[in-house]
Amino acid sequence: MALSTAPPTSSAITLQINGEKYTLRVDHRTTLLDALRERLDLTGTKKGCDQGQCGACTVLIDGRRAVSCLQLAVAAEGRAITTIEGVADGERLHPVQQAFLELDGYQCGYCTPGQICSALGVIAEHAAGWPSAVTPDVRPEAGPPSLDAEEIRERMSGNLCRCGAYVSIVEAVARAAEAQAESAVEPQAEVIEERVA
Question: Hey, what CATH topology would domain 11-86 get?
Fold first, then answer.
């Protein structure tokens, strides 16, 4: 009688998070959210619905927004992941964080890490000229879409705020986008450090 060989149910992976490399062994069913929070103690990313509906767990993967509760950790290997812990520059807040603080876009704060990561994605998408569902003219000759309140609300619609701070959040995203457009500073390359978890 031949023994059957079951495929492995866990793998050693290396995740690049906030400019550092982390090596860990995870069950293939482990979400990126659970790996961040439970294995790497990066608890800034929040678990809300655990179904991809609230946006509290939003992170950036290769610069694009992703809800980490629906992303498997093994699928994120080799990709650049940015969590809320990697947004500020040391003690200096990122302009998006500063705008949220100044315009009271955080209320209780539970959704704020996901809101900020999503706002970073929105600003990058806009800068790249990506249209949204409410962009009136998507023809290339129309130029980049305007990042007005309607555009911001549409683009941020995947992030829920139970406190209802939407007006302040929209204002904060608009202010940060204006500041970024005015500065037009090239982002610095990430320095990768090796860590084993």
Answer: Ubiquitin-like (UB roll) (3.10.20)
Q: Domain ranges in the chain? A: 11-86, 95-183
Structural tokens at position 124: 């990058």
Q: Which residue has the tokens 């457009």?
A: 181
**Residue 120, CB half-sphere, CA atoms under 13 Å: how many?**
27
Q: What is the pLDDT of residues 39-91, one digit of tens each?
A: 999 999 999 999 999 999 999 999 999 999 999 999 999 999 999 999 999 99
- In sequence order, what are the residues at sequence separation of 6 or more whose Cβ sits closer than 8 angstroms to the Cβ of residue 100? 106, 112, 115, 116, 119, 168, 169, 172
Residues 6+ apart with CB under 8 A from 50: 33, 69
Residue 128 is given by DSSP the state T
